[in-house]
Amino acid sequence: MISRPNQKIMRSTILVVAFISGFAIMTVELLGGRVLSPYFGSSVYVWGSLITIFMLSLSIGYLVGGKLSTRNPSLRFYAFFFIIAAIFILPVIQFADGIMEQIFLLVEDPRYGSLLAAACMYFLPICFLGMISPYSIRLLVEHEHHSGHIAGQLYFVSTLGSALGTLATSFYFVLWFDVDQILWGVIVALLLSATAVLLVYNLPTKSAARDRVSV
Amino acid sequence: MKLNRFGICSLRRACLLLASLFGGLITTSFAAGAETIHEERSLYRDITVVQTGPRRCLIFNVRIGDRNQTCVDIDKPEKLVFSYTRMSFAGLLLMPEPKRILVAGLGGGSIPMTLTDLFPDAYIDVLEIDAAVFNVAKQYFFYQENENMKVHVMDARIFIKRAAMSNVQYDYIVLDAFTGDYIPEHLLTREFLLEVKQILSPDGVLVANTFSTSALYDHESVTYQSVYGEFFNFKMPASGNRIIITNLKGLPERGELIAQAQQLSERLEKYDIQILDYPNRMSTAVDWDMSRRVLTDQFSPANLLRDNR
To answer: What gap in Å lies between CA B213 and CA B222, rounded to an integer?
Structure first.
């Protein structure tokens, strides 16, 4: 049987980490403009490239995350999305210059250059962040009849996170920190989210939490 | 503290925006006889061409209260109307006969037109990100390309990075891409200035039109200093602009500047450039806050710093 307090903790944890993932996506996207501008300028097509790649990555992430949620959904598996996304953000800090320099040499047209650079750097991390949403819904839904309600709540927190991530990054973070410092902040936030999820998974009545989700 | 300052600033900007929205009609007819002869919305900005008597002006984003970008007297198009435009020729005191010239930022084209008139044999590359500005310059501001002078419609950072890779160098570089409503933040950074340094010839001169008020003045000053060391800080009382003039081989003494000004003054008279007044206004004294952060590709919130005191 499910123990109620645990279930409550799990629900709120999932909503909080979904908020953080939404926040992270838009922070990384906004900084993408900064990362690309030394090589591809700050023209409207640079934003076009970034938004295209982010939307494409998210759409594929939703598809794959939804599919994965049909096979033994568990909090432990869920935590991996955060860890892998965090790991894939690392190259944006460590290798961005090398990647963009190669593309700059290879592709003359800054439109396709920025598109390719955005794809190389952001496809993987954003794809994994995209998997979080449908998987969260699967973990939260208990009955068919409230699935729409749960999905609404999940979209609410993650999109609210995106809104606040956009605002905080563009208004304040860029004024207070280096781009790389903010990206490290995102990585830490994602790893803390994974830790929180794993802690809930390992709560004393863990069998209950695990049973709940592997129905 | 920071939050407060920003709150007030953005409130003030919001009020200004509202006021100018309501006052839109008044703005467009701000002077008796002013006539809007062209309006265009480009990818980057709203472009308006206004004429008052013989004076024709290019204005970006008139609705949010931008000042004139550039003006021309259509009866005497060779005269330079704006003080900062004339000031950008002070670089000639350090490099009187440039062979290769780069101008980042076309505007109405008065700087490149004057340069090609002065040095018909010099190769001039002009960078302008906005194709619409290029067309307006040709149609309304007498801008004409010739076989030695070409406009490249592209981001200055990209052009300069490619020029550095192919070891192209310029004797005279004018950076004038920073006016208007939005500052291209990637053109203010230390990394960008290092790329510009690579394409500056050993005897060449760099002339940059920069911000003279707000925290940005300090940030830009320390950034230029970190890349070029000492530079001439050039301000005129009539102008709100500050021009940075520097080179690689070391700045000349004031005596040399005055001697050069005397040689040039006659040639520059027809453009209204009072070059004889310039040497005394070019100073190497530090009048900025040295503790400000250098702007880098990692840290360049120029559009936020502009409102910061």
So the answer is: 14
Q: What is the DSSP string of B4-35?
A: HHHHHHHHHHHHHHHHHHHTHHHHHT-STT-E
Q: How far does the CA of residue B248 sit from the closest CA of chain A (Å)?
A: 23
Q: Cα distance from A38 to chain B (closest Cα, Å)?
A: 6
Q: How far apart are CA B128 and CA B135, in angstroms?
A: 11
Question: Is B176 annotated as catalytic?
Answer: yes
> Could you give the ipTM of this predicted complex?
0.86
Structure tokens given for B136: 């307006």
Q: Each residue's pLDDT tens digit in chain B (309 positions)?
A: 333 444 444 454 554 455 444 444 444 444 457 889 899 888 888 888 999 888 898 888 766 555 667 889 888 888 998 888 999 999 999 999 999 999 999 988 999 999 999 999 999 999 999 999 999 999 999 999 999 999 999 999 999 999 999 999 999 999 998 766 668 899 999 999 999 999 999 999 999 998 777 888 999 999 999 999 999 999 988 777 899 999 999 999 999 999 999 999 999 999 999 999 999 999 999 999 999 999 999 999 988 887 765
Smallest Cβ–Cβ distance between A43 and the set B129, B301, B304 belongs to B129
Minimum CA–CA partner of A101 in chain B: B161
